[in-house]
C-alpha cells in the first residue's frame, strides 16, 4: 500500500477524482450567498454543506488508495493477458533483431516450423526466401509471398523502433539512436489462392474459328463429297472442343463461335493447339488440306471485351496467313502454329475492291505522301513508285519519303533524279514530310505494316487518312489507325500487289517504262529471280508490267554487283558454320560495302543451295545495329524464329534487328534455335 501512496492520478482520472472537491467549493460559495438572502436558511444550508464535504473528503481519501491498488493490479494482469494472447495468437508471429536473427516466437510459429523460443538462428535458415536484403529498414514494411511445406504464405515484415524502450531499460543501452527490431507475421493464403485459381479457371474465354481455305478446298473435290468433307471437319472440331468442356457453334459455313473456360484454354496451350494438325488430317480425296485459324480473347473486364479481343485476334491470324492461333490478353499477344504457306487466292475481287477504295481516298485529299520502310529495298521503292503513278493519274500532288540512298535502290533512283518528266519534289526527306503532312493529306505506307519500321513514323499521327499496302505477316505492332489496310501474306511482294491495283485503279493508267522497271525489279528481287514464293498472280503481275514496257535485260543490268559486293557475298558464304546439323549461320562483312544488309540477304539465299541446310541466317552489322536475314525453303518457318527475336516476315523469308554486339547476337540466335527445337516449335 505504501508503494501505491507514491502513485498519483493523472489526466482524465485525476479530473474525475477531484470533481467532488471542486463541487464542495461551489456549494460553500453558494452557502455564503445564502446568508445575504436569509440567515436561517443559510444556517440550514451550512449544515447540509458540512455533511456533504465530510462525506466527499472521507470517500476521496479512503477510496483513492483502493482504486490505485486495483488499477495497478489490473495493469499487471492485463500485461500478462496480452503476453498470453500474443503467445497463443493463431497467426504465426516472430520477433527478430536487425540482422534477421530470431529472438522470440509464439506457439503458432513453433507448430508451423518446429522451432521454439530457444531457436536463435537467422530466419533465412527457416525460410530461404526471406533474406537479410529483404528486411525493412527505418520503420518501414515489406510484404513477401513464400511457399513453405507446400503451403502459401503472405509474410508481413515490419521494423519497429525501440529507442524509447531502451531509454527506460536498466540493463540495456544503445550505442546510437535508430535501433529497430523486426516483427514478422505469416498469413496462410493457401486456401485463398486455391479459390482465386478456381475463380480464374472458371472465367469465360471467347473465341472465333475460321476455315481459311473453305472455298478452295471445296472446289478441289467432287460436288457429291463436299457436304461429307464439311461434316467430317465439323465433327472433328466438335469432338475436340467437347473433350475439354468447350462449346463450338457455327455462325456461317466457314465461321464458328467458340466458348470455353480458362482452364480449358490452359489444356489447349499444353497441347499446343494440336487441333490445327488434326483438321489437316481430314481427307476424303481432297488435294488441298483444310486449315483453320483461331482468335481467342480472355482476361478482359467483360464478356463483350473478350469478344472484341477475339475479333482482333482472328483478324491478326488471318492477316498473318492463317493456319494458326492468336491469343489476345490485353496488350499481350501469343501465337501458335502458322507453319503452312498462305494459300494464294485465284480471284482478284479483293484487289479490285481495294483499288477502287484507294482511288476514292485519293480523290478526297489534296496531297498524297508515300513511304516504305527504313533502309528501303527494291520492293519498297518500286511499290512507292507505283502508288506515285496512281496519284499522278488523278492529277494529285504526290511525294515519296526517302531518307538518303543505298546501293539497293540507287540504280533505280538515278532514273528519276534530274528527269524532266518528274517534279523536283518527287522525293522528300523526313523533315520535309513532317512539314507537308496535315489533315488534308493521304499517307500511303507500302511494304511495311509496323509503325516503328516506317521511314518516318511521326507523320502517321499527323493525319487520320492512312492506307497500308503490304505482303508481310502482321505482328502485335501494327498501324492501328489505317482507314484501308490491304495486307496479303500470300503475295510475293508489295510490287505485285501494287501492279494488280494499277490494273483496276482507273481507265487509261499509263505506266512509263522506268516505272514498270521499278515495279518489275521489286518482284524480281523479293522472289529471288522468281524462284521463291511465286504464284500464278505473281507471273500475271510480271506479264502486265512487261506489257507496260518493263525490260528484263535492262532490270538485270541495273542490279549487277560491283566487285566488293561480290567479294563480300563470297566471304559470307565461305565463313558460314552449320549449327545443329541443319542451320547455316554466317556473318556478312560491312566495312567495305555500301549496303551490307542487301549482301547479307543475298548470301542467305545462296546458303539455301547447300545440301542439308533447312534455314540460313546471316548477321550484318550496319550503323550500330545487327541485322539478321533469315531464309528457308519449306522445312522451317523462319518467321516464328524471327518473331521470337523481335522481328517478323514470312515463313521462308524473315528478319530482325538487334541492338547488341555481333557475338551476343549470335549467342541469342543459337539459344533461340536450341530452345525452339526443344519445345517443338520448329
TrEMBL record:
Keyword Chloroplast: no
Domain DDH: 367-523
Annotated GO MF terms: hydrolase activity; metal ion binding; nucleic acid binding
Reactions accelerated catalytically: 3',3'-c-di-AMP + H2O = 5'-O-phosphonoadenylyl-(3'->5')-adenosine + H(+)
InterPro entries: DDH_dom, DHH_sf, DHHA1_dom, GdpP/PdeA, Oligoribo/pAp-PDE_c-di-AMP_PDE
Transmembrane segments annotated in the record for this chain: 16-37, 43-61
Name of the protein in its database record: Cyclic-di-AMP phosphodiesterase
